[in-house]
Protein backbone atom coordinates (compact mmCIF):
# COMPACT_ATOMS: atom_id res chain seq x y z
CA UNK A 1 0.00 0.00 0.00
CA UNK A 2 2.83 2.41 0.86
CA UNK A 3 4.18 2.13 -2.69
CA UNK A 4 0.86 3.34 -4.13
CA UNK A 5 0.75 6.56 -2.11
CA UNK A 6 3.99 7.50 -0.39
CA UNK A 7 4.53 10.60 1.73
CA UNK A 8 7.85 12.19 0.78
CA UNK A 9 10.07 13.87 3.37
CA UNK A 10 12.43 16.77 2.99
CA UNK A 11 14.86 18.20 5.58
CA UNK A 12 14.62 21.67 7.11
CA UNK A 13 17.73 23.46 5.88
CA UNK A 14 19.48 26.79 5.93
CA UNK A 15 21.59 26.64 2.78
CA UNK A 16 24.62 28.97 2.90
CA UNK A 17 24.72 30.86 -0.42
CA UNK A 18 27.16 33.61 -1.40
CA UNK A 19 26.44 35.85 -4.40
CA UNK A 20 29.62 36.27 -6.48
CA UNK A 21 28.51 38.25 -9.51
CA UNK A 22 25.40 39.80 -11.11
CA UNK A 23 25.31 40.42 -14.86
CA UNK A 24 22.77 41.99 -17.17
CA UNK A 25 22.59 39.73 -20.22
CA UNK A 26 21.78 41.61 -23.40
CA UNK A 27 20.95 39.87 -26.65
CA UNK A 28 23.93 39.53 -28.97
CA UNK A 29 22.05 41.71 -31.47
CA UNK A 30 20.65 45.00 -30.09
CA UNK A 31 16.87 45.42 -29.94
CA UNK A 32 16.20 48.15 -32.51
CA UNK A 33 13.10 50.18 -33.36
CA UNK A 34 11.09 48.66 -30.53
CA UNK A 35 9.25 50.95 -28.16
CA UNK A 36 6.67 48.60 -26.72
CA UNK A 37 4.89 45.27 -27.26
CA UNK A 38 1.23 44.49 -26.69
CA UNK A 39 0.27 41.97 -24.01
CA UNK A 40 -3.10 40.25 -24.30
CA UNK A 41 -5.62 40.11 -21.48
CA UNK A 42 -4.66 36.45 -21.05
CA UNK A 43 -1.06 37.58 -20.44
CA UNK A 44 -2.30 40.32 -18.15
CA UNK A 45 -4.86 38.48 -16.02
CA UNK A 46 -4.13 38.90 -12.32
CA UNK A 47 -2.96 35.30 -11.91
CA UNK A 48 -0.21 35.88 -14.51
CA UNK A 49 1.23 38.93 -12.73
CA UNK A 50 3.76 36.77 -10.93
CA UNK A 51 7.18 35.27 -11.39
CA UNK A 52 7.26 31.49 -11.52
CA UNK A 53 10.34 30.26 -9.61
CA UNK A 54 11.82 26.91 -10.67
CA UNK A 55 15.07 25.13 -9.88
CA UNK A 56 17.11 22.53 -11.78
CA UNK A 57 19.83 20.39 -10.15
CA UNK A 58 22.76 18.89 -12.05
CA UNK A 59 25.21 16.40 -10.57
CA UNK A 60 28.95 16.89 -11.10
CA UNK A 61 29.30 13.43 -12.69
CA UNK A 62 27.11 14.63 -15.58
CA UNK A 63 29.37 17.56 -16.48
CA UNK A 64 31.41 16.83 -19.60
CA UNK A 65 32.11 20.33 -20.85
CA UNK A 66 35.40 21.46 -22.33
CA UNK A 67 37.10 23.30 -19.47
CA UNK A 68 38.09 26.19 -21.74
CA UNK A 69 34.67 27.57 -20.84
CA UNK A 70 32.96 27.34 -17.49
CA UNK A 71 29.38 26.20 -17.19
CA UNK A 72 28.36 29.77 -16.35
CA UNK A 73 30.13 31.17 -19.40
CA UNK A 74 28.44 28.63 -21.66
CA UNK A 75 25.05 29.53 -20.20
CA UNK A 76 25.73 33.25 -20.66
CA UNK A 77 26.88 32.91 -24.26
CA UNK A 78 23.88 30.75 -25.16
CA UNK A 79 21.48 33.12 -23.40
CA UNK A 80 22.83 36.09 -25.37
CA UNK A 81 22.16 34.16 -28.57
CA UNK A 82 18.70 32.93 -27.67
CA UNK A 83 17.63 36.40 -26.49
CA UNK A 84 17.85 37.58 -30.10
CA UNK A 85 14.68 35.74 -31.20
CA UNK A 86 13.29 35.90 -27.64
CA UNK A 87 14.09 39.61 -27.27
CA UNK A 88 10.85 40.43 -25.34
CA UNK A 89 12.47 38.76 -22.30
CA UNK A 90 15.02 41.61 -22.27
CA UNK A 91 12.29 44.23 -21.76
CA UNK A 92 10.38 45.48 -18.72
CA UNK A 93 6.69 45.88 -17.85
CA UNK A 94 4.83 49.12 -17.31
CA UNK A 95 1.21 50.08 -16.80
CA UNK A 96 -0.76 51.91 -19.47
CA UNK A 97 -4.35 53.16 -19.46
CA UNK A 98 -6.80 51.35 -17.16
CA UNK A 99 -3.93 49.57 -15.44
CA UNK A 100 -3.11 47.35 -18.43
CA UNK A 101 0.46 46.11 -18.82
CA UNK A 102 2.77 46.26 -21.82
CA UNK A 103 6.41 45.39 -22.50
CA UNK A 104 8.72 48.33 -23.15
CA UNK A 105 12.38 48.66 -24.06
CA UNK A 106 15.17 51.07 -23.16
CA UNK A 107 18.91 50.56 -23.68
CA UNK A 108 20.85 48.19 -21.43
CA UNK A 109 17.88 46.45 -19.79
CA UNK A 110 18.49 42.78 -20.46
CA UNK A 111 17.87 39.60 -18.49
CA UNK A 112 19.71 38.99 -15.23
CA UNK A 113 22.20 36.19 -14.57
CA UNK A 114 23.55 35.76 -11.04
CA UNK A 115 26.59 33.65 -10.13
CA UNK A 116 26.66 32.19 -6.62
CA UNK A 117 28.32 29.40 -4.65
CA UNK A 118 27.59 27.30 -1.60
CA UNK A 119 30.05 25.55 0.72
CA UNK A 120 27.82 22.49 1.02
CA UNK A 121 27.42 19.64 -1.46
CA UNK A 122 24.25 18.58 -3.24
CA UNK A 123 24.11 15.47 -1.03
CA UNK A 124 23.69 17.77 2.00
CA UNK A 125 20.36 18.97 0.57
CA UNK A 126 18.65 15.62 1.10
CA UNK A 127 16.36 14.00 -1.45
CA UNK A 128 16.62 16.18 -4.56
CA UNK A 129 13.48 14.66 -6.06
CA UNK A 130 11.23 16.31 -3.44
CA UNK A 131 10.61 20.10 -3.71
CA UNK A 132 11.86 21.82 -0.56
CA UNK A 133 10.98 25.42 0.43
CA UNK A 134 14.55 25.79 1.74
CA UNK A 135 15.73 25.84 -1.88
CA UNK A 136 14.38 29.39 -2.29
CA UNK A 137 17.90 30.64 -1.54
CA UNK A 138 18.84 29.23 -4.95
CA UNK A 139 16.48 31.75 -6.57
CA UNK A 140 17.62 35.38 -6.79
CA UNK A 141 15.40 38.03 -5.24
CA UNK A 142 16.22 41.71 -4.86
CA UNK A 143 16.70 43.11 -1.36
CA UNK A 144 13.31 44.23 0.01
CA UNK A 145 11.57 43.08 -3.17
CA UNK A 146 7.79 43.40 -2.87
CA UNK A 147 5.73 40.24 -3.21
CA UNK A 148 4.13 39.93 -6.67
CA UNK A 149 6.15 42.86 -8.05
CA UNK A 150 6.45 42.67 -11.85
CA UNK A 151 6.62 46.37 -12.87
CA UNK A 152 10.15 47.48 -13.89
CA UNK A 153 11.59 44.06 -13.05
CA UNK A 154 13.88 41.98 -15.28
CA UNK A 155 11.54 39.50 -16.95
CA UNK A 156 14.05 36.66 -16.77
CA UNK A 157 16.23 36.15 -13.69
CA UNK A 158 18.63 33.20 -13.51
CA UNK A 159 20.90 32.16 -10.65
CA UNK A 160 23.64 29.56 -11.11
CA UNK A 161 24.79 28.20 -7.74
CA UNK A 162 27.92 26.03 -7.66
CA UNK A 163 28.19 23.46 -4.85
CA UNK A 164 31.35 22.10 -3.21
CA UNK A 165 30.85 18.69 -4.87
CA UNK A 166 31.13 20.21 -8.35
CA UNK A 167 27.41 20.03 -9.08
CA UNK A 168 25.24 23.10 -9.46
CA UNK A 169 21.70 24.40 -9.60
CA UNK A 170 20.01 26.70 -12.07
CA UNK A 171 17.31 28.78 -10.39
CA UNK A 172 14.92 30.58 -12.77
CA UNK A 173 12.30 33.25 -12.39
CA UNK A 174 10.33 33.97 -15.56
CA UNK A 175 7.50 36.48 -15.56
CA UNK A 176 4.25 34.63 -16.26
CA UNK A 177 2.98 37.64 -18.28
CA UNK A 178 5.47 36.74 -21.03
CA UNK A 179 4.70 33.03 -21.33
CA UNK A 180 2.58 30.22 -19.97
CA UNK A 181 4.05 26.87 -18.91
CA UNK A 182 4.29 25.49 -22.45
CA UNK A 183 5.81 28.77 -23.65
CA UNK A 184 8.38 28.67 -20.84
CA UNK A 185 9.32 25.12 -21.86
CA UNK A 186 9.75 26.30 -25.45
CA UNK A 187 12.15 29.05 -24.34
CA UNK A 188 14.00 26.78 -21.91
CA UNK A 189 14.47 24.15 -24.62
CA UNK A 190 15.87 26.76 -27.02
CA UNK A 191 18.36 27.95 -24.37
CA UNK A 192 19.34 24.37 -23.52
CA UNK A 193 19.76 23.29 -27.15
CA UNK A 194 21.78 26.40 -27.93
CA UNK A 195 24.05 25.69 -24.96
CA UNK A 196 24.50 22.08 -26.03
CA UNK A 197 25.04 22.90 -29.72
CA UNK A 198 27.30 25.93 -29.27
CA UNK A 199 25.24 27.98 -31.75
CA UNK A 200 21.66 29.21 -31.91
CA UNK A 201 18.96 26.53 -32.09
CA UNK A 202 15.28 27.50 -32.14
CA UNK A 203 12.68 24.95 -33.11
CA UNK A 204 10.04 26.22 -33.53
CA UNK A 205 10.81 29.86 -34.21
CA UNK A 206 9.22 31.98 -31.46
CA UNK A 207 6.04 33.85 -32.34
CA UNK A 208 4.79 36.87 -30.35
CA UNK A 209 1.42 37.55 -32.05
CA UNK A 210 -0.43 38.62 -28.86
CA UNK A 211 -2.85 40.77 -30.87
CA UNK A 212 -4.69 37.59 -31.81
CA UNK A 213 -6.24 37.86 -28.36
CA UNK A 214 -7.41 41.48 -28.64
CA UNK A 215 -10.80 42.16 -26.99
CA UNK A 216 -13.86 42.44 -29.22
CA UNK A 217 -15.64 45.70 -29.95
CA UNK A 218 -18.20 45.75 -28.54
CA UNK A 219 -17.21 43.24 -25.83
CA UNK A 220 -19.37 40.14 -25.34
CA UNK A 221 -19.30 38.40 -21.96
CA UNK A 222 -21.14 35.17 -22.64
CA UNK A 223 -20.28 33.15 -19.52
CA UNK A 224 -20.55 33.87 -15.77
CA UNK A 225 -16.76 33.52 -15.18
CA UNK A 226 -17.15 32.33 -11.62
CA UNK A 227 -13.40 31.73 -11.59
CA UNK A 228 -12.76 35.48 -11.36
CA UNK A 229 -15.63 36.54 -9.12
CA UNK A 230 -14.76 38.20 -5.85
CA UNK A 231 -16.44 36.11 -3.16
CA UNK A 232 -16.42 37.16 0.46
CA UNK A 233 -15.17 34.14 2.36
CA UNK A 234 -18.16 32.69 4.18
CA UNK A 235 -16.49 29.43 5.20
CA UNK A 236 -13.67 28.39 7.52
CA UNK A 237 -11.46 27.36 4.57
CA UNK A 238 -9.35 30.45 3.96
CA UNK A 239 -9.08 31.30 7.66
CA UNK A 240 -7.72 27.86 8.51
CA UNK A 241 -4.95 28.26 5.89
CA UNK A 242 -3.98 31.92 6.21
CA UNK A 243 -4.25 32.44 9.97
CA UNK A 244 -1.95 29.52 10.73
CA UNK A 245 1.41 28.80 9.17
CA UNK A 246 0.69 26.05 6.60
CA UNK A 247 3.24 23.38 5.79
CA UNK A 248 4.09 21.98 2.38
CA UNK A 249 3.42 18.27 1.98
CA UNK A 250 4.47 16.06 -0.93
CA UNK A 251 3.19 12.62 -1.91
CA UNK A 252 4.27 10.20 -4.61
CA UNK A 253 1.22 8.77 -6.38
CA UNK A 254 1.96 5.63 -8.43
CA UNK A 255 0.75 5.32 -12.00
CA UNK A 256 -1.27 2.24 -10.97
CA UNK A 257 -3.13 4.13 -8.26
CA UNK A 258 -3.88 7.00 -10.66
CA UNK A 259 -5.32 4.48 -13.12
CA UNK A 260 -7.39 2.89 -10.37
CA UNK A 261 -8.88 6.26 -9.32
CA UNK A 262 -9.79 6.94 -12.94
CA UNK A 263 -11.57 3.59 -13.24
CA UNK A 264 -13.36 4.23 -9.94
CA UNK A 265 -14.56 7.64 -11.13
CA UNK A 266 -15.92 6.00 -14.29
CA UNK A 267 -17.45 2.99 -12.51
CA UNK A 268 -21.03 4.19 -13.08
CA UNK A 269 -20.48 3.84 -16.81
CA UNK A 270 -21.92 7.31 -17.42
CA UNK A 271 -18.67 9.25 -17.54
CA UNK A 272 -15.51 9.08 -19.60
CA UNK A 273 -12.92 11.11 -17.71
CA UNK A 274 -9.18 11.66 -17.76
CA UNK A 275 -6.66 10.75 -15.09
CA UNK A 276 -6.46 14.46 -14.25
CA UNK A 277 -10.24 14.64 -13.72
CA UNK A 278 -10.09 11.75 -11.25
CA UNK A 279 -6.95 12.89 -9.44
CA UNK A 280 -8.13 16.50 -9.13
CA UNK A 281 -11.46 15.31 -7.76
CA UNK A 282 -9.87 13.00 -5.18
CA UNK A 283 -7.41 15.67 -4.02
CA UNK A 284 -10.11 18.36 -3.80
CA UNK A 285 -12.42 16.13 -1.78
CA UNK A 286 -9.61 14.96 0.53
CA UNK A 287 -8.38 18.52 1.10
CA UNK A 288 -11.84 19.86 1.97
CA UNK A 289 -12.54 16.97 4.34
CA UNK A 290 -9.14 17.27 6.04
CA UNK A 291 -9.70 21.00 6.62
CA UNK A 292 -13.14 20.22 8.10
CA UNK A 293 -14.66 23.15 6.21
CA UNK A 294 -17.83 24.71 7.62
CA UNK A 295 -20.68 25.42 6.93
CA UNK A 296 -21.57 22.35 4.90
CA UNK A 297 -23.89 24.23 2.52
CA UNK A 298 -21.13 26.63 1.43
CA UNK A 299 -20.19 26.46 -2.26
CA UNK A 300 -16.49 25.95 -2.97
CA UNK A 301 -14.51 26.42 -6.18
CA UNK A 302 -11.83 24.32 -7.86
CA UNK A 303 -9.93 26.18 -10.58
CA UNK A 304 -7.29 24.92 -13.01
CA UNK A 305 -5.76 26.08 -16.27
CA UNK A 306 -6.65 24.47 -19.59
CA UNK A 307 -4.34 24.75 -22.60
CA UNK A 308 -6.56 26.22 -25.33
CA UNK A 309 -4.09 26.05 -28.24
CA UNK A 310 -5.83 23.17 -30.00
CA UNK A 311 -9.26 24.76 -29.47
CA UNK A 312 -8.44 27.95 -31.38
CA UNK A 313 -9.61 27.81 -35.01
CA UNK A 314 -10.59 31.36 -35.91
CA UNK A 315 -7.76 32.06 -36.44
CA UNK A 316 -5.52 29.25 -35.17
CA UNK A 317 -2.37 30.06 -33.23
CA UNK A 318 0.85 29.98 -35.20
CA UNK A 319 3.47 27.37 -34.40
CA UNK A 320 5.95 28.78 -31.90
CA UNK A 321 3.46 30.99 -30.03
CA UNK A 322 4.80 31.16 -26.47
CA UNK A 323 2.37 33.55 -24.78
CA UNK A 324 -0.46 32.70 -22.44
CA UNK A 325 -3.09 30.61 -24.22
CA UNK A 326 -4.84 29.31 -21.13
CA UNK A 327 -8.44 29.31 -20.05
CA UNK A 328 -9.27 29.05 -16.35
CA UNK A 329 -11.76 26.25 -15.74
CA UNK A 330 -13.90 26.36 -12.61
CA UNK A 331 -15.88 23.56 -10.95
CA UNK A 332 -18.18 24.35 -8.02
CA UNK A 333 -19.70 22.13 -5.35
CA UNK A 334 -20.94 22.42 -1.79
CA UNK A 335 -18.92 21.22 1.16
CA UNK A 336 -21.64 18.64 1.85
CA UNK A 337 -21.37 17.04 -1.60
CA UNK A 338 -17.56 17.06 -1.51
CA UNK A 339 -17.49 15.30 1.83
CA UNK A 340 -20.19 12.71 1.08
CA UNK A 341 -19.17 9.07 0.77
CA UNK A 342 -19.10 7.50 -2.69
CA UNK A 343 -19.30 10.74 -4.69
CA UNK A 344 -15.91 10.63 -6.46
CA UNK A 345 -17.66 10.03 -9.79
CA UNK A 346 -19.95 13.02 -9.30
CA UNK A 347 -17.03 15.32 -8.46
CA UNK A 348 -15.06 13.96 -11.42
CA UNK A 349 -18.03 14.79 -13.65
CA UNK A 350 -17.95 18.42 -12.42
CA UNK A 351 -14.20 18.67 -13.12
CA UNK A 352 -14.65 16.99 -16.52
CA UNK A 353 -17.43 19.39 -17.53
CA UNK A 354 -15.47 22.43 -16.34
CA UNK A 355 -12.44 21.33 -18.37
CA UNK A 356 -14.48 20.78 -21.54
CA UNK A 357 -16.24 24.13 -21.11
CA UNK A 358 -13.03 25.98 -22.00
CA UNK A 359 -13.74 26.55 -25.68
CA UNK A 360 -12.66 29.24 -28.13
CA UNK A 361 -15.86 31.12 -27.26
CA UNK A 362 -15.08 30.82 -23.55
CA UNK A 363 -11.57 32.20 -24.11
CA UNK A 364 -12.89 35.18 -26.13
CA UNK A 365 -15.43 35.87 -23.39
CA UNK A 366 -12.63 35.71 -20.80
CA UNK A 367 -10.63 38.31 -22.73
CA UNK A 368 -13.64 40.66 -22.85
CA UNK A 369 -14.45 40.06 -19.18
CA UNK A 370 -10.92 41.01 -18.10
CA UNK A 371 -11.03 44.10 -20.30
CA UNK A 372 -14.18 45.35 -18.54
CA UNK A 373 -13.54 43.95 -15.06
CA UNK A 374 -9.78 43.88 -14.68
CA UNK A 375 -9.14 42.19 -11.30
CA UNK A 376 -6.58 43.95 -9.13
CA UNK A 377 -5.88 41.17 -6.66
CA UNK A 378 -5.88 37.39 -6.44
CA UNK A 379 -9.15 35.94 -5.14
CA UNK A 380 -8.96 32.97 -2.78
CA UNK A 381 -12.52 32.82 -1.40
CA UNK A 382 -13.55 29.16 -1.11
CA UNK A 383 -11.00 28.14 -3.72
CA UNK A 384 -8.39 25.47 -4.43
CA UNK A 385 -6.29 25.94 -7.58
CA UNK A 386 -4.55 22.93 -9.13
CA UNK A 387 -1.65 23.41 -11.52
CA UNK A 388 -0.77 20.44 -13.70
CA UNK A 389 2.96 20.28 -14.49
CA UNK A 390 2.80 16.62 -15.52
CA UNK A 391 1.93 17.72 -19.07
CA UNK A 392 5.21 19.68 -19.42
CA UNK A 393 8.37 18.08 -20.81
CA UNK A 394 10.34 19.96 -18.17
CA UNK A 395 13.08 17.35 -17.67
CA UNK A 396 13.65 16.88 -21.39
CA UNK A 397 13.58 20.64 -22.03
CA UNK A 398 16.27 21.31 -19.39
CA UNK A 399 19.03 19.13 -20.90
CA UNK A 400 21.78 21.68 -21.54
CA UNK A 401 24.27 19.00 -22.53
CA UNK A 402 24.79 17.33 -19.18
CA UNK A 403 21.67 15.16 -19.26
CA UNK A 404 18.33 15.45 -17.50
CA UNK A 405 18.37 17.38 -14.24
CA UNK A 406 17.91 15.35 -11.04
CA UNK A 407 15.01 17.65 -10.20
CA UNK A 408 13.19 20.27 -12.26
CA UNK A 409 10.21 22.21 -10.99
CA UNK A 410 8.75 24.59 -8.41
CA UNK A 411 9.99 25.03 -4.86
CA UNK A 412 7.71 26.63 -2.28
CA UNK A 413 3.90 26.74 -2.34
CA UNK A 414 3.39 28.14 1.16
CA UNK A 415 3.16 31.83 0.07
CA UNK A 416 -0.04 30.84 -1.81
CA UNK A 417 -1.36 27.91 0.26
CA UNK A 418 -4.51 27.44 -1.83
CA UNK A 419 -2.43 26.32 -4.82
CA UNK A 420 -1.68 22.63 -5.36
CA UNK A 421 0.73 21.24 -7.98
CA UNK A 422 0.86 17.92 -9.83
CA UNK A 423 4.50 17.26 -10.80
CA UNK A 424 6.19 14.62 -12.94
CA UNK A 425 8.40 12.30 -10.90
CA UNK A 426 12.05 13.35 -10.66
CA UNK A 427 15.15 11.42 -9.68
CA UNK A 428 17.90 9.75 -11.67
CA UNK A 429 16.05 6.56 -12.64
CA UNK A 430 13.76 5.95 -15.59
CA UNK A 431 10.34 7.67 -15.23
CA UNK A 432 7.72 5.28 -13.85
CA UNK A 433 4.63 7.34 -14.65
CA UNK A 434 4.22 8.31 -10.99
CA UNK A 435 3.34 11.89 -10.11
CA UNK A 436 4.30 14.01 -7.13
CA UNK A 437 1.46 15.87 -5.43
CA UNK A 438 2.49 19.05 -3.59
CA UNK A 439 -0.10 20.74 -1.38
CA UNK A 440 -0.27 23.06 1.63
CA UNK A 441 -2.03 22.16 4.87
CA UNK A 442 -2.23 23.45 8.43
CA UNK A 443 -0.53 21.09 10.87
CA UNK A 444 -3.83 19.88 12.30
CA UNK A 445 -5.00 18.59 8.89
CA UNK A 446 -1.86 16.76 7.69
CA UNK A 447 -2.55 13.34 9.20
CA UNK A 448 -6.19 13.38 8.15
CA UNK A 449 -5.32 14.41 4.59
CA UNK A 450 -2.88 11.52 4.24
CA UNK A 451 -5.53 9.11 5.51
CA UNK A 452 -8.05 10.41 3.01
CA UNK A 453 -5.55 10.32 0.15
CA UNK A 454 -4.99 6.65 1.00
CA UNK A 455 -8.68 5.94 1.60
CA UNK A 456 -9.20 4.40 -1.83
CA UNK A 457 -6.31 1.95 -1.47
CA UNK A 458 -8.57 -0.65 0.18
CA UNK A 459 -10.56 -0.93 -3.04
CA UNK A 460 -7.34 -0.88 -5.03
CA UNK A 461 -5.99 -3.76 -2.94
CA UNK A 462 -9.17 -5.77 -3.53
CA UNK A 463 -8.95 -5.14 -7.29
CA UNK A 464 -5.38 -6.45 -7.31
CA UNK A 465 -6.48 -9.51 -5.32
CA UNK A 466 -3.96 -8.88 -2.53
TrEMBL record:
Q: Which residues form a coiled coil?
A: none
Pfam annotation, one family? Transferase
Q: Which InterPro entries match?
A: CAT-like_dom_sf (IPR023213), Plant_Fungal_Acyltransferase (IPR050317)
Stored PANTHER family: F21B7.2 (PTHR31642:SF50), TRICHOTHECENE 3-O-ACETYLTRANSFERASE (PTHR31642)
The record's comment on protein family reads:
Belongs to the plant acyltransferase family.
Q: Could you identify this protein by its name?
A: Omega-hydroxypalmitate O-feruloyl transferase
Species name: Penstemon smallii
Amino acid sequence: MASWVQELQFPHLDIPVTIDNIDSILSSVPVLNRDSLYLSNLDDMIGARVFTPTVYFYQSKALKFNHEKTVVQKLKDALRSVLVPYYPLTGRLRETKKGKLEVFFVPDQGALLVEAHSDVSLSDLGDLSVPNPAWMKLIYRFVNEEQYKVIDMPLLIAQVTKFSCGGFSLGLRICHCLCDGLGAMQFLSAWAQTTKNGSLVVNPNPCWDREIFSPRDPPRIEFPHTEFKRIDEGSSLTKSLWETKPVQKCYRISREYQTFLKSLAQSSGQLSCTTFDAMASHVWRSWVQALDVKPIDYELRLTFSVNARAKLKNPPLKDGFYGNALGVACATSTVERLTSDGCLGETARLVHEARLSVSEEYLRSTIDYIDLNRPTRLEFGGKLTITQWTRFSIYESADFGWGRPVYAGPIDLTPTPQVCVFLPEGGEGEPSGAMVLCICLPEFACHRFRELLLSMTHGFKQQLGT
